[in-house]
Amino acid sequence: MATERSLRFEGCNFFRQRVILSTLSGKSIKLQNIRAKDDSPGLRDFEASFIRLVDKITNGSRIEINETGTRLYYQPGILLGGAVEHDCNVQRSISYYLEGLICLAPFMKHPLKAVLRGVTNDQTDPSVDTLKATSIPLLKKFGVDGEGLELKIIRRGMLPGGGGEVFFSCPVSKGLKPIQFTDPGKIKRIRGVAYSVRVSPQIGNRITDSARSILNKFLPDVYIYTDHMKGVSSGKSPGFGLSLVAETTAGCFLSAELVSNPQGKGPAVLPENLGRDCAKLLLEEIYRGGCVDSLNQSLALLCMTLGQQDVSKVLLGPLSPYTIEFLRHLRSFFQIMFKMETRSFDEQKGGEKVLMTCVGVGFSNLSKTVK
Which residues of 157-188 are buried (b: 16+ CB within 10 A; e: fewer)? Predict the structure, then answer.
């Protein structure tokens, strides 16, 4: 592996993508000029924390960072898995770390059981609730299933204090199934969680009522759970938010969410406005449509790439900038290209869609113990 030329990248963008794909493909990477011209150059604390987490779940990884943190060399080891505990940096939500784990978890040597602590809901990253409602069912579609696959919120933590805790476990997969996921179907129900911590329990009901006032115009089956955590399980800071998920007849999940401003930052948000705005965001996501929401596009494309040597197809809404860069990285690490066809539907079916087709690389889990 040492003789193989490592892939070189500039800057700090898409840092997680590069580390995850490097770990899966076994190709080492060199990142240069990481915020070199910034007032405080180098890796941020949350990125260093992500590297530490990857180091915990792998065996034999080599990580070299120069003194200023502007250059990083990463040579991946094998994915070990097992029981892991990690204190995530509060600058980013637990989901920042969890999204990486979800991509790597099916290819471990031992089933992963991870406990992550930090911020469960913030305004930058998707919340843990949304990942639980969208990413986990998507993994099941690719054949990663069993009793071991679960994501549980033990404690909630809001910015700036954090104090949340999440448990994620995932079984080892023999190989991912190819999928044909081209018909999104029609929206049949909307589910959601209105959560509040260290504020009045009434706020959850106010969010729910305002969100329903918009969504009930379209369909009757709208159910929003109120989740008010007390005491130790409510973390260290006050806050509230709403995570909505629309499920279609074909088993697609489209999500949207909003969180209140952190304590001491920005103006106070009214629960009514938050509920209304979140419902509108969900309608916008439904308009974009596709079989996978914009949050999970890259996870779906990764699973298609790593599937058996067979054709996989998925219909996506407009590609997000993150997904476009992810496609470029897939080409660099796995030499795989997707066939992309745009599909226009009439107004009732929403915006333009992209049909993505590829043949999987037949990735087999080399870390898995042979029984």
Answer: bbbebbbbbbebbbbbbebbebbebbebeebe
